[in-house]
Specification:
The complex is a heterotrimer of chains A (about 100), B (about 325) and C (about 90). With about 100 residues, chain A is mostly helical. Chain A has helices at about 1-30, 30-60, 60-90. Chain A is elongated and about 55 Å long. Chain B has about 325 residues and is mostly helical. Chain B has helices at about 1-20, 25-45, 50-80, 85-90, 95-100, 100-125, 135-145, 150-155, 160-180, 195-215, 225-240, 245-250, 250-275, 290-320, 320-325. In chain B, helix 11 packs parallel to helix 14 (about 290-320). The relative contact order of chain B is 0.11. Chain C is mostly helical. Chain C has one domain. Helix content of chain C is about 90%, strand content about 0%. In chain C, helix 2 (about 30-55) runs antiparallel to helix 3. In chain C, about 65% of the residues are buried. The chains are: A mainly alpha (about 100), B mainly alpha (about 325), C mainly alpha (about 90). Chains in contact: A-B, A-C, B-C. At the B-C interface, helix 1, helix 2, helix 3, helix 10 and helix 11 of B face helix 1, helix 2 and helix 3 of C.
Chain lengths: ~100, ~325, ~90
């Protein structure tokens, strides 16, 4: 019983850490693409940890299924929106502006 | 300790509301509005009104957000085209502003103060007792459902719910009147983006399934016809945005049938029940559960069709401004 | 246990408040949409933790509703953008 609670707390704290990392990235990174990268990766990982923690805490099969589907849908939604934002930002800027080269 | 959460939510909601009004650019307003919807839904959850939170999530944040975004597209090209006219209109405005009489402002200020006083009074003097909760609890076994909110909405106060569905249809009627009821099939509107196409194909069945789940779950918990209708309507909007305009596929008479079947069935059932000697919308307790489920399903289908039609018509209204202008 | 939940909720809400700064400042439209994504993900996390804290599993339905409609908003924004790009020479 105790072990389960400890694992839940650890998962939640780790999730919080990733959320903080994502927010700091959004606030501090210099251009849109790095901000996108920080936000989409870190926040979804954080949500994954929090979802895992809450699934462990609630521990009813139906709820666990729902929590997992919430995480899955958020992953899909945010990766799609990340892709769309990045693509259109890139199309808006001239390709020669980017330093990586094609 | 949870006071901390409450105060943070309150600050967030009020701050976002203010930002929404004060933001300088419209697109900023739309995004802040979405965030405001989220904050409001969280607040409703904290207040224990999960039914309201779910409707807020579905209608205010989801559907209204999409409509606002569409409105943004609607006006921005027009603004850029008529930039000179706009400048001409904008310049005399400050002159008018100084000449505006003081009376309307005074009335507005007075009204605001009165409103604040009334809301303070309402918050301060919360009525004693449980209100109608006890009565609803007593009547619940006869209503055919287990969730008190659904019992009130679909059984005890069914007339109000019927009118609410009517309000959505009235809105659609106004849009028909303003923008024509023809839905055009446009070429070159298919989703050429592979990711977009896959996402739309993936989410369509999920929206349908989850809407059906919410509809059925309304019997025993927060859910019901309105969120389900929005989710089903979202299918139509998604398909329209993805280049598969559903409303051009179904014939006009079928669309009208779908639009009216919800409120029509609802009111017909009410009158039918009147012929058996009871009052309007008084379901016999033995069949109440199944009757409510049928009514809710029909209503959800109608709401979904109405929302899809509202979005589609508004959407194409902005795409063919020349056509509309030449008609006038 | 409840204390941990409250801490996590307050922490996540503070994250949202911090993210508001980017909405206010964001130089391009893309930055503002990005922050909406931040709100969405963080809001989901808050709803999940609230579901555990209040012992109210129906909150998960609210979360799923938000989730599936967020994608609609994203796609609709994509279309707005496309249209604007097409209009401007």
């Amino acid at each position: 019983m105790m072990i389960k609670e400890i694992i839940t707390v650890i998962l939640l704290i780790v999730g919080c850490f990733f959320f903080l990392a994502g927010t700091l990235g959004v606030l501090r990174f210099p251009d849109l693409f790095s901000r996108l990268h920080a936000l989409t990766k870190a926040d979804n990982l954080g949500l994954g940890f929090i979802a895992a923690g809450m699934a462990l805490h609630i521990a009813s099969p139906w709820a666990v299924l729902k929590i997992l589907s919430i995480w899955f849908f958020t992953l899909l939604a945010s990766s799609t929106s990340c892709y769309l934002i990045a693509r259109f930002q890139k199309e808006k800027e001239q390709p020669t502006d980017r330093k990586e080269g094609e | 300790m949870s006071v901390l959460i409450d105060s943070l939510l309150a600050i967030l909601a009020i701050y976002l509301a203010l930002q929404c009004l004060l933001a300088q650019r419209l697109i900023q307003t739309v995004f802040i509005f979405f965030a405001f919807g989220l904050a409001l839904a969280l607040t409703w959850v904290r207040l224990g009104a999960i039914d309201v939170a779910i409707t807020e999530a579905a209608i205010a944040a989801g559907f209204m957000g999409v409509l606002f975004l569409d409105a943004l597209r609607d006006f921005s090209p027009a603004v850029s085209k008529k930039q000179q006219n706009l400048e001409a209109v904008r310049n005399p405005l400050p002159g008018n502003d100084t000449k505006r009489p003081i009376l309307p402002r005074l009335a507005l200020g007075l009204g605001l103060v009165l409103f604040l006083l009334i809301s303070l009074e309402a918050v301060w003097n919360t009525p004693e007792g449980k209100g109608l909760t006890v009565v609803t609890g007593v009547m619940l076994p006869d209503s055919g459902v287990e969730h008190p909110v659904t019992a009130v909405l679909l059984n005890f106060r069914a007339y109000d719910t019927w009118l609410e569905i009517g309000v959505i249809l009235m809105g659609l009627l106004a849009i028909f009147a303003a923008g024509g009821k023809e839905v055009y099939r446009k070429s070159g509107m298919t989703a050429e983006d592979p990711v977009l196409r896959q996402v739309i194909l993936f989410f369509t069945p999920i929206l349908f399934l989850f809407g059906a789940f919410l509809l059925y779950f309304g019997k025993s918990g927060p859910g019901g016809a309105f969120p389900a209708g929005v989710l089903w309507g979202a299918i139509g909007i998604l398909l329209h945005l993805g280049g598969r305009p559903v409303l051009t596929v179904i014939p006009r008479w079928l669309l009208y049938l779908i639009l009216t079947i919800g409120p029509g069935f609802f009111i017909l059932l009410g009158f039918l029940l009147m012929t058996t000697g009871s009052t309007l919308f008084e379901y016999p307790p033995a069949y109440a559960g199944i009757l409510i489920l049928i009514v809710e399903t029909m209503a959800a289908i109608s709401i979904a069709a109405a929302l899809t039609a509202i979005f589609t018509n508004l959407n194409q209204m902005s795409e063919e401004p020349d056509k509309i202008e030449s008609n006038n | 246990m409840d204390g941990v939940f409250i801490f996590v909720i307050v922490f996540l809400l503070l994250n949202i408040v911090l993210g508001l700064f980017r909405v206010w400042r964001g130089p391009t439209v893309a930055d503002r949409l990005l922050t909406t994504q931040l709100f969405g993900t963080t809001g989901m996390a808050v709803l999940l933790v609230l579901a555990g804290y209040l012992q109210e599993l129906t909150l998960l339905n609210v979360a799923i509703t938000f989730n599936v409609l967020a994608i609609l908003l994203v796609i609709s924004l994509f279309k707005v953008w496309k249209k604007k790009k097409g209009e401007t020479p």
